[in-house]
Amino acid sequence: MRRLIAIRDRQRANRPVVQVGIIGMPQKAHEISAFRKKWMGVADSVVVSGIVSRLGSISFVNIADSNWQSTPCFYVWSQLPVLSDGTAALCCDDWDGVAAMGNLYSSTIREIWTCELRKKLRILHLAGRAGTIPACQACRQPRQGPWWFANGVSGERTTPVSIPGGG
Ligand code: SF4
Fold it and tell me: What is the pTM of this model?
């Protein structure tokens, strides 16, 4: 990470932006202060985030925003994670590709990004009907709309876990 940042800085480039993060969960509480200390002033941002549900595979996520179910999820417009076998997952929460959108060994990124299925998912999210999409229905991810969405971005993804001494 430090090498990447050094190379970028040597080139006087402002990309890539380097963000490091740790999940604010009780099991990690003892590491958070040290994590912050290690990366503050090194990475461009240091984030302690809440727990997300990974398509429902983690069940104990609290959601702070009561409007989350009718808010479109900006991931549908911003992410196309690719797994090691070429599977194009729906979003980063789709960690094992159960909601795969295609495979890069048989389709281009453009084809997957603009396919009818992807368009349909976006329309359903905008219509507040993400709950009709099996993967999104199972997901307990607090949703943030894309920046151009009328209700904006709440910035509050999950209820922060109380971490003694976590800062
Ligand atoms: S609602 Fe959940 S499953 Fe659907 S795109 Fe957003 S994060 Fe992924």
Answer: 0.67
Nearest CA, atom 6, ligand 1: 73
Residue closest by Cα to atom 4 of ligand 1? 136
| Distance separating alpha carbons of residues 89 and 139, to the nearest angstrom | 14
User: Which residues, listed in sequence order, are joined to residue 87 by a DSSP beta bridge?
Assistant: 103
CA distance 153 to 142: 11
Q: Which of 118, 126, 136 to mutate to test the pocket of ligand 1 (most atoms within 8 A of CB)?
A: 136
Question: Is residue 91 in contact with ligand 1, taking CB distance under 6 Å?
Answer: yes
| C-beta contacts of 5-10 below 8 A and 24+ residues apart | 5/42, 5/43
Cα–Cα dist 128/73, whole Å: 10
The tens digit of pLDDT for each residue in 57-113 reads 776 666 666 677 788 888 899 899 999 999 999 998 899 999 999 999 999 999 999
